Amino acid sequence: MNASQKVALVTGATRGIGHETVRQLAEAGVTTLLAGRDPARAKAAADKLKAEGLPVEPITLDVTDAGTIQAAAAEVKARFGKLDILVNNAGIIADDLAKAPSEQSLDAWRETFETNLFAVVAVTQAFLPLLKAAPAARIVNVSSILGSLTLHLDPTSSIYGFKIPAYDASKSALNAWTVHLAHELRDTPIKVNAVHPGYVQTDMNGGQGEIDVPTGAKSSVGMALVDADGPTGSFTYLGKTLPW
Ligand code: NAP
Question: How far does the centroid of ligand 1 lie from the alpha carbon of residue 95, in Å?
Fold first, then answer.
């Protein structure tokens, strides 16, 4: 690999939108690390894409486990010395959809925030030195339209009647983190953006989404490959700005 070859890492990439994001980045010529918490499943998923001739490698990363985060960052440092693209894609819903917002358990709130917010902060902190070592890194935080407080308050919005508070608040907080990190890095070539993938047919919604997985990966891939004129601190879906 020559030094100008871009290297990406996508968390939660064993299935769903993350897996397809790996495919599309690799198809764009980026050496892409398919990160998964189960080493065997990460390897199997990466091997399939490799067999198609794509530049994909597996890496073990449980985003809620400090040990695997440090080990993954050390591995990327040793192998590549930099990271051009970090896609914080891993995410969960722990809310009980049959319960009202006030009835969700604190365990569900904690579990959700561990994966959807604190893990993103931890992974980003661990990889930031490697992102700074790349010429113009991109950080993509996979958020959700359900993190939009403006749309939650709008009776005409499609999400008005759908309130899963731990998940929704974790994505609002992820958006806030995106704005804060983008501000910290505003005088560097690094861009930090949040995206909504769309309502995508994945395991997360039992395949009930409205758009297919290849379309669902496009917002992440677009921001991962955005050029120097692109935004930072934004929240978009397929390039269109969403309200906070
Ligand atoms: P998914 O099919 O349920 O896949 C979630 C992925 O996250 C899996 O690969 C899972 O790994 C991984 N993951 C969960 N906890 C992890 C952990 N602790 N460490 C490492 N990986 C972990 O979900 P998806 O629909 O592709 O969602 C991807 C992202 O898009 C999420 O952030 C989600 O909130 C966001 N999103 C999705 C939709 C939608 O309509 N699907 C809409 C808006 C936003 P395992 O295979 O090991 O479980």
Answer: 14
CATH code where residue 118 lies: 3.40.50.720
C-beta of 229 in contact with ligand 1 (< 6 A) = no
Q: Is 171 a catalytic residue?
A: yes
Ligand 1 atom with least separation from CA of 119? 18
Catalytic annotation present for 237: no
Q: Which two tokens stand for residue 8?
A: 């990406």
Strand order through the sheet with 138-142: 56-60, 31-36, 7-10, 85-88, 138-142, 191-195, 235-237, 240-241
109: domain range? 3-241
Number of domains within the chain: 1
DSSP 144: -
- Tens of pLDDT along the chain (244 residues) come to 666 799 999 999 999 999 999 999 999 999 999 999 999 999 999 999 999 999 999 999 999 999 999 999 999 999 999 999 999 999 999 999 999 999 999 999 999 999 999 999 999 999 999 999 999 999 999 999 999 999 999 999 999 999 999 999 999 999 999 999 999 999 999 999 999 999 999 999 999 999 999 999 999 999 999 999 999 999 999 999 999 9
